Amino acid sequence: MHRPDATPYPREQVTAGILAGGRATRMGGHDKGLLELAGRPMIEYVLDALRGQAARVVINANRSFEAYERYGVTVVRDRQDGFLGPLAGMAGMMAAVDTAWLLTAPCDSPQVPADLGPRLWQTVVRERADIGVADNGERLQPVFALLRCALLPELEACLAAGERKIDRFYRQQHMVAADFSDCPKMFVNVNTPAERDALAAELRHGAKP
Ligand SMILES: Nc1nc2c(ncn2[C@@H]2O[C@H](COP(=O)(O)OP(=O)(O)OP(=O)(O)O)[C@@H](O)[C@H]2O)c(=O)[nH]1
Ligand SMILES: [Mg+2]
Fold it and tell me: Which of 43, 50, 65, 108 to mutate to test ligand 1, by most ligand atoms within 8 A of the CB atom?
């Protein structure tokens, strides 16, 4: 019998896109992706987690292009200027990639699960959906998503109409939520210096034998 949820994860048709295009105002304007966390720039944690889940990785950024290019990835700007939010970054990446799917994660959540893409994929395939989004058990976490790149015209129309909220775009599409309530660490994100210090202490502690 055909079991749609057994459809293997199409890694070769997935580009991972790291959202690093924000202003980081709560971090004093310091580019969050390049900020050190327990000895490494934050983006490196996310790169390491996503590399195995995609044919290639791109970084969405609006500054620090050379620093990000040193990771050997394509750096993609937002589709529109003006820091319109992550939705503009998603549109920029969808326009730049040549795979059928875009897997997104933010640069400021260093504990991305190694099976984020495959788990989102299972839900997408089961429901024949165009977008799979992680849910932490309480609400959608829309920056962790698997999106069909063919949605670009719809996304551009939505941005052109002034929409900035990711959730509202998703709800106009065939979207499914994927339960990640068993992975609370993936949703720990770093917005302020105090949050950075707290997570660094936790990671260092966890690294001890
Ligand atoms: N491409 C793009 N990404 C953004 C933009 N604003 C926020 N993001 C990304 O969305 C994710 C969540 O945003 P926030 O945690 O609010 O980060 P931020 O906006 O840089 O930080 P604050 O200025 O302190 O709100 C992060 O990965 C940001 O890089 C934007 O205008 N364009
Ligand atoms: Mg913000």
Answer: 108
